Amino acid sequence: MTAVREATVPELSDVMNVLDGAVLAADAATVRERITDDDVLVAVSGDGERALGALVLDGDHVDAVAVRRRRRGQGIGTALVEAASERRERLTAEFDDDLRPFYDGLGFDVAETDEPGRLWGERR
């Protein structure tokens, strides 16, 4: 079983490990600041100790969402976005075209951007 909750500062290295493992550009100082603002969610294993996924918000924008490679396809990313959606009236995200099915499945309205291969999504 997986639980989603706000990340804590002592979990910064676990959050960065998840983000780095997904090859997402994330600055540790910025993520730490967002943790203190309660803008970072973490999905943890049933024992509550292992970070399986993380989501970083910048206001209502999903800056990053990542799940450990071995745990992908198990609904963890969906749980993170759903938990973020409960905290915000709307969510936006910019993402690569290959992630469109993920965001479509979560009810985001998706549009192309000026950058080839990049999309923009919004969920209310």
User: Which percent range fits the helix content?
Assistant: 25-40%
Q: Could you tell me the CATH topology label of the largest domain.
A: Aminopeptidase
- Give me the side-by-side strand order of the main sheet: 1-2-3-4-5-7-6
Class of secondary structure makeup: alpha+beta
CATH class of the largest domain: Alpha Beta
Give helix and strand order, one letter per element, not per position: EHHEEEHEHEE
CATH architecture of the largest domain: 3-Layer(aba) Sandwich
Percentage beta strand: 25-35%
The outline comes out as globular
Mean pLDDT: 94
Number of helices: 4
End-to-end span in angstroms?
Answer: 27 Å
| Total count of domains | 2
Q: Uncertain spans, ≥5 residues at pLDDT below 50?
A: none
* CATH homology group of the largest domain: Gcn5-related N-acetyltransferase (GNAT)
Task: Produce a short descriptive summary.
This protein is of the alpha+beta class. The protein has four helices and seven strands, in the order βααβββαβαββ.
Using brief descriptors, characterize the structure shown:
124 residues; alpha+beta; Aminopeptidase
Question: Explain this structure to me?
Answer:
The protein is of the alpha+beta class. The chain folds into two domains: 86 residues, Gcn5-related N-acetyltransferase (GNAT) (Aminopeptidase), CATH 3.40.630; 35 residues, no CATH class. It is 30% helix and 32% strand. β2 and β3 form a beta hairpin. α1 crosses α2. The relative contact order is 0.15.
